[in-house]
Write a structure and sequence with these properties.
Blueprint (H helix, E strand, L loop, with lengths): L1 H11 L3 H24 L3 E3 L4 H17 L4 H21 L3 E3 L4 H6 L4 H9 L2 H16 L3
Antiparallel strand pairs: 1-2
Helix pairs in contact: 1-3, 2-3, 2-7, 3-4, 3-7, 4-6, 4-7
Length: 141
């Protein structure tokens, strides 16, 4: 466990500009997705500030740790991370799924959280790719 902790700590020691880029991108992405989920009646956070706790305090460190791994590994580890987040959010009722929403109708309500986790696990490889491109654009040497 200590070996993993030391490895993860080295992955988190990055340029502050990179962390700032992650925070801006993920915060914007989180606000957009929360708005979209509420607008189309799929799901939303109970409180808007959960975008900060989920997207910045939870997803940014995980993205930094997964950065540099192959797409499939980022997705697989991200699936575990998002599965825990989705399960916790709906179990603690800090996330709200609209009754009979589009995903419930298409996949069945018993598969809602699984579908959300499968979708949101893509955030890690796609987010790492996007942040890398943005960071490179603004930090050319």
């Amino acid at each position: 466990m200590k070996e993993f902790y030391n490895w993860a700590l080295t992955k988190l020691k990055v340029d502050k500009k990179l962390v700032f880029t992650y925070c801006i991108v993920y915060f914007s992405w989180g606000l957009l997705m929360n708005w979209f989920g509420a607008e189309v009646g799929i799901a939303k956070f109970t409180y808007w500030w959960q975008v900060i706790t989920c997207y910045i305090l939870y997803m940014v460190p995980i993205s930094l740790i997964l950065r540099g791994l192959p797409f499939h590994a980022q997705y697989a580890y991200g699936l575990v991370a998002m599965g825990l987040l989705e399960f916790g959010g709906y179990a603690l009722e800090t996330s709200y799924a609209y009754p009979n929403n589009l995903l419930d109708q298409f996949f069945n309500e018993r598969n809602f959280s699984l579908g959300m986790a499968l979708f949101f696990a893509l955030y890690f490889p796609l987010g790492n790719w996007g942040v890398h491109k943005i960071y490179q654009l603004f930090n050319k040497k």
